[in-house]
Amino acid sequence: MQPFTRVQGIAAPLDRPNVDTDQIIPKQFLKRIERSGYGPFLFYDWRYQGDGETENPDFELNQEPWRHAPILLAGRNFGCGSSREHAAWALEDYGVRAVIAPSFSDIFRSNALKIGLLPVALPEEVVTRWLDVAREEPGMEATVDLVEGYVEFNGERRAIELDDDARERLAGGLDDIALSLRHADVIAGYEAQRPGRLPTTAGLRG
Questions:
Q1: Is 45 exposed, middle or buried (0-12, 13-18, 19+ CB in 10 A)?
Q2: Could you tell me the pTM of the whole model?
Q3: Residue 119's Cα: distance from chain center in Å?
Q4: Residues with Cβ within 8 Å of residue 62, at least 6 apart in sequence
């Protein structure tokens, strides 16, 4: 996955609590087998009017300068609902690198960290204040610095609370497969001495 060290860019306000995963990526778009290609369907029911093609001009991410902003300011309990990984995939594919909110669904948070999308939980009064500023001064940028461990907006800096394991994964661009491949020599050694009579998923041997 793409390493996350520091992102600076426009912060888009999405001042809605309890944004669930079906709102992030509706169920009819979950038929793809790839992890990519979900960006066009992000917030589909909010972004488009009834015909599914005409943009809703009132939706924040359809407005400049918030269209394709890399940082999203959101309400509490972001990513609640079903456990679909596609919600995090859609945000990442759309171009969002970090979501700042008072709280997140545990499953969404876990899914996001696994693909390089950083969820930053801050006190609700801080996020509320930042949402107000983002609306009043469209185009204001935020900085999310994982190396130094802070997020900054409107001259206010707050610490990013993240465990060391998640921080290492994000900074190194290490998904689950990459973490496994760190032990490639050990895995190869085990496979070399493993009896051939045991089951395998490697396919038929000639």
A1: middle
A2: 0.86
A3: 7
A4: 47, 55, 56
**Largest pairwise CA distance in the chain:** 68
pLDDT along the chain (206 residues), means of 10: 94 97 95 87 96 94 96 98 94 97 97 95 98 97 97 98 90 73 71 77 56
Q: Rounded distance, CA 167 to CA 105, Å?
A: 19
Question: With 0-12 CB in 10 A as exposed, 13-18 as middle and 19+ as buried, what is 40?
Answer: exposed
Name the CATH code of domain 6-173 (choices 3.20.19.10, 3.30.70.20, 3.40.50.970, 3.30.230.10). Answer: 3.20.19.10
The Cα–Cα gap between 80 and 110 comes to 12
Residue 142 and residue 8 in contact, taking contact as beta carbons nearer than 8 Å? yes
Q: For residue 79, count CB atoms less than 10 angstroms from its CB and return exposed for 0-12, middle for 13-18, buried for 19 or more.
A: buried
Q: Phi first, then psi: what are they for 111, rounded to 5°?
A: -60, -40
Rounded to whole angstroms, the Cα distance separating 145 from 156 reads 13
